[in-house]
Amino acid sequence: MSTAKEVILSGIRPTGRLHYGNYFGALTHFLRLQERDANCYYFVADYHALTTITDRREIYQATLEMLRTYVACGLDPHKSVIYRQSDLPCTAELALLLGMVTNIGHLERGTTYKDKLGRLQDDPKMEGNPLSYGLLGYPVLMAADILIVKADLVPVGDDQRQHLEMACDIAAKFNHRFGETLHIPKALGRDALRLPGLDGSAKMGKSDNNTLDLLDDPATVLRKIKAVPTTTDPLPLDTESNEPEMVLPKMPPGVAVLYRLLSLLAPEDAYLDFLEQYRQGGKFYGNLKKEVARYVSEFNAPIIESYNDPAHDDAFIEEFLRENAKRVAPVALETVEACREAMGIGRSLYRA
Ligand code: TYM
After folding, report:
1. Residues 125, 150, 206, 283: which is the catalytic one?
2. CATH number, domain at 236?
3. Which residues does residue 82 pair with via DSSP β-bridges, in sequence order?
């Protein structure tokens, strides 16, 4: 029986503050998994952010802020290897090699690419990068992130399911063509979360202006929660909800968001109490919103405090980044060299 430690890897793009979708879809699992006797690699995906961030002054600072939020939430640079994607430039080389076994048609069916294509058709003068080669190749770079450390588990939200499947497909194709070289990770479980947006839309997302953020102060939380629409026509809540224990009656989407937040943050009694009130009807949304806002602010308070801790300044972040990049580099280089050998171009002399 193999005694190798389990390898866990995931990343988040530094394109805004961390929101509740990021936290409950991904970060909460990073925290849980770093307590295992496993090799955990968590990074900030600054290369990937270049598909949307165009201001060169923004990206470095946004990366440091994201790392500071990681730490404020409890990720521990002694338990997990926490790094910046671009500190591992051999990932870009692996993406190039993987590109040789990736069909363009496969990439064109990617949801992120198709989404951007749709938005551009609606608004041809859209600001920022147009449809770039980088955007089309986004899933290949993500596959490289995952395969380079030989990940077994990739904790991500449900919206990243297709990207993870693409990574597995690319690895399988590579192995089929060049011999067993890459380790194929496990598929995402059925219980992966997709948190709806505060506007009631299907997904909370940075580019949709519908997020609740971990660093939101109590006044901001209250303003955002009060603005959640509760008067829209009742629509069925996603009936394919992948949280079977959370069977909710049909609710307007905004109300469903409030209940979803309550289920994540409040004690079960309080949650069931509000559910009963919903079933009985009546006017209680004002109270529900106040309670949800209170739970959110209580959840955010220690994170904000730790984020503002002077000990977690840029120097502290840069120090552990330097150390952690050294911890991930050997395994990453080993994978790239193995792929080079498998494809026949041989070892890289300048690295020898
Ligand atoms: P990103 O930055 O869009 O999101 C980071 C993580 O947060 C999860 N997430 C959500 N989960 C549930 N409900 C939501 N509303 C929600 N919004 C975001 C995402 O599923 C993700 O887990 N491509 C990735 C970054 C990446 C990566 C990787 C991840 C690059 N390379 C390798 C894993 C492995 C992304 O854009 O995540």
Report:
1. 206
2. 1.10.240.10
3. 42
Here the tokens at position 72 are 């404020």
Residue 248 pLDDT > 70, yes or no? Answer: no
Q: Say yes or no: 301 and 322 in one domain.
A: no
Mutation pick for ligand 1 pocket among 7, 8, 9, 12 (CB with most ligand atoms within 8 Å): 12
pLDDT at 236: 46
Average pLDDT, the chain: 91
Flag whether pLDDT at 18 surpasses 90. Answer: yes
Total structural domains within the chain: 2
pLDDT at residue 238 tops 50: no
Identify whether 116 is a catalytic site residue.
yes
206 is catalytic: yes
Regarding the beta carbon of 145 and ligand 1, being less than 6 Å apart is answered: yes
Ligand 1 contacts CB of residue 198 (under 6 A): no
Q: Domain holding 153: CATH number?
A: 3.40.50.620
**How far, in Å, CA of 20 to CA of 198, rounded?**
10
Over 60: is that where the pLDDT of 246 sits?
no
**Nearest residue to 292 (alpha-carbon basis) of 324, 338, 322, 259:** 259
Nearest ligand 1 atom to alpha carbon 156: 22
Whether residue 208 lies inside any domain: the answer is no
pLDDT in tens, 273-286: 999 988 888 778 99
Q: Could you tell me the two tokens for 200?
A: 């009631």
**Identity of residue 95:** A
Helices (H), the chain: 20-22, 28-33, 46-49, 56-73, 90-99, 104-108, 111-122, 133-136, 138-148, 161-178, 218-226, 253-265, 268-280, 285-307, 314-343
